[in-house]
């Protein structure tokens, strides 16, 4: 069932959009073991299998054996592997498209600021040497810093101050890329839902994990922060659209267009599993008179310029994610 859900999602996107520019192309992927990387692999392999796109895929991994042990489904596919890390790897052949998908911090092996910057400098030098056609870089909505309470949605022009090393590294990486002579597209990712989420990571994943296992949903705060979520099938479709259609050095927010409180999200997740009998427990107290913290993007630019849309409602995205994990 879980494999069918992913393939259905991808086929739904492919039938409505033109990805023919990927035919017979070669792609290189860093961050292939993360949320974006795994979905991109699924997408490209599906294009090869069902539509004969003949895309040559190479990924960077610290350990081939560890990757295949964790994701054995990819063993029998025609994927090329380079064992190394993002700071030290080298390429001796040309690739048409380069995906730098190192997005979120690893839980047990966090990327340090210096490592991330050394990595992007290496990527830039390599892309110059191999004369890559285009590089897609996954940045983060965290580069905006804390969202002002009087701004309901962050635009790409919103000025902010990154507040942690990860966000600072992403912001500086953007600056290095914009100063380079490489053809690039930048996607600032916000919050997402879908297969391959780590179910112990952030509110949405924790809520889904609780519902699947019929445990109480625990909200450690007061439930007031506002988030928005984009389904991963839509996210990958948006990223590929940025790669294929955006002008050089374009920056786009990538995330859900709506906004929902953490408490209301918990209620929505609970409703998507008919067998759920747990409770929602809010442990924090509301700070009266204090505006709720927000992390919501304005996505009007990418919709207007590149013509993308959200194909899945939040309810559908949550339900399909729950179905995926119940099928594992």
Summary keywords:
globular; 3-stranded mixed sheet; 7-stranded parallel sheet; Rossmann fold; single chain; alpha/beta; about 325 residues
Overview of the molecule:
The protein has 328 residues and is α/β, with parallel strands linked by helices. The chain has a single domain, classed as Rossmann fold (3-Layer(aba) Sandwich), CATH 3.40.50. The chain is 38% helix and 16% strand. It is built from ten helices and 14 strands. The protein has helices at residues 2-15, 35-51, 64-70, 113-130, 165-179, 202-212, 232-245, 262-271, 300-306, 314-326; strands spanning 26-30, 56-61, 79-83, 97-100, 134-140, 184-189, 192-193, 217-219, 226-227, 230-231, 250-254, 260-261, 280-282, 294-295. It has a seven-stranded parallel β-sheet with strand order 3-2-1-4-5-6-11, with helices on both faces. Strands 12-9-14 form a three-stranded mixed β-sheet.
Give me the secondary-structure topology:
Blueprint lengths: L1 H14 L10 E5 L4 H17 L4 E6 L2 H7 L8 E5 L13 E4 L12 H18 L3 E7 L24 H15 L4 E6 L2 E2 L8 H11 L4 E3 L6 E2 L2 E2 H14 L4 E5 L5 E2 H10 L8 E3 L11 E2 L4 H7 L7 H13 L2
Parallel strand pairs: 1-2, 1-4, 2-3, 4-5, 5-6, 6-11, 7-10, 8-13, 9-14
Antiparallel strand pairs: 9-12
CATH architecture classification: 3-Layer(aba) Sandwich
Low-confidence stretches: none
Q: Give the H and E element order.
A: HEHEHEEHEHEEHEEEHEEHEEHH
Number of domains: 1
Q: What's the helical proportion of residues?
A: 25-40%
Shape descriptor reads globular
In the CATH hierarchy, what is the class? Alpha Beta
Major beta sheet, strand line-up: 3-2-1-4-5-6-11
Number of strands: 14
Q: What is the count of helical runs?
A: 10
User: Biggest sheet, in brief?
Assistant: 7 strands, parallel
CATH topology: Rossmann fold
Rg over CA atoms: 20 Å
CATH superfamily: NAD(P)-binding Rossmann-like Domain
Give the termini separation: 8 Å
Category by helix and strand content:
alpha/beta
Strand content: 15-25%
User: What's the overall average pLDDT, rounded?
Assistant: 93
